[in-house]
Amino acid sequence: RTIMCPPLGTPTEMNYSISDSWSDEELVRFLAERKADDSLPENVLVGMDLTLIHPRDSSPGNIWYLNQSDDQQPYGNGESDIRKAKGGYWKCIDVLRIQTSKSTAGVKFSLEFYEGEAPSGKRTQWLMHEYQVEQNDDANVPQEYKSLCTIFMQGSKKLNTEDELLSLSTNAPNDHLESYLQYLADMEEQNVAVNS
């Protein structure tokens, strides 16, 4: 199921974004507390399969991806450190354990994108930070979202002020929204082709 945060909303529903000032602990808690029917920050897209796109086709800037996929495997060593993607692969380069409380723990994976076939692809400047919840004893229901990711160009300027945050409002021209809508149309076209 692919859904996107609502393009319009009252100011109280859409008045915050995930920013670069959020700590790793805050990001893990955000992921651990999220349910499918919760309102989302304006810079979060839900359900985009990042293995189907090249990072240059992703939404640059302060955009986050919330995923429900059950097929994501934890990174270990060797083959499991690599996740295939369009035009190349993501390679895990760092793992950080994050303890937010006695009952909630998460992990932050840092991944680097390589163009070409593994293991001899060409290193690029694209990076991904992916957060997953490993333990959530406070939750009385299964975790609905499995990961929270952001993709960015290494060394790119981080967006910090509210004025610089990206808006997904349909009232303003937005290449990110158009790119995401094109992605959804392509996915629907693939589903129709498979089912016919």
What would your notes on this structure say?
The protein has 196 residues and is an alpha+beta fold. It has a single domain, classed as NAC domain (Metal Binding Protein, Guanine Nucleotide Exchange Factor, Chain A). The protein is 16% helix and 29% strand. It has two helices and seven strands. Strands 1-2-7-6-5-4-3 form a seven-stranded mixed beta sheet. Residues 14-154 form the NAC domain. Its main location: nucleus. InterPro entries: NAC-dom, NAC_dom_sf. This is NAC domain-containing protein.
Count of strand segments: 7
Summarize the amount of helix as a percent range.
10-25%
Overall tally of structural domains: 1
Low-confidence stretches: 1-14, 157-176
CATH class: Mainly Beta
What is the count of DSSP helices, taking H or I runs of 4+ residues? 2
Overall shape = globular
Strand order in the largest sheet: 1-2-7-6-5-4-3
Residue share in β-strands:
25-35%
Mean pLDDT: 74
CATH topological fold name: Metal Binding Protein, Guanine Nucleotide Exchange Factor, Chain A
Please outline the major beta sheet: 7 strands, mixed
GO biological process, one term: regulation of DNA-templated transcription
GO molecular function: DNA binding
Organism: Aegilops tauschii subsp. strangulata
Keywords: DNA-binding, Nucleus, Transcription, Transcription regulation
Task: State the gist of this model.
With 196 residues, this protein is an alpha+beta fold. It has helices at 24-33, 175-195, and strands at 44-46, 64-67, 82-85, 88-99, 104-115, 122-136, 147-153. It has a single domain (24-166), classed as Metal Binding Protein, Guanine Nucleotide Exchange Factor, Chain A.
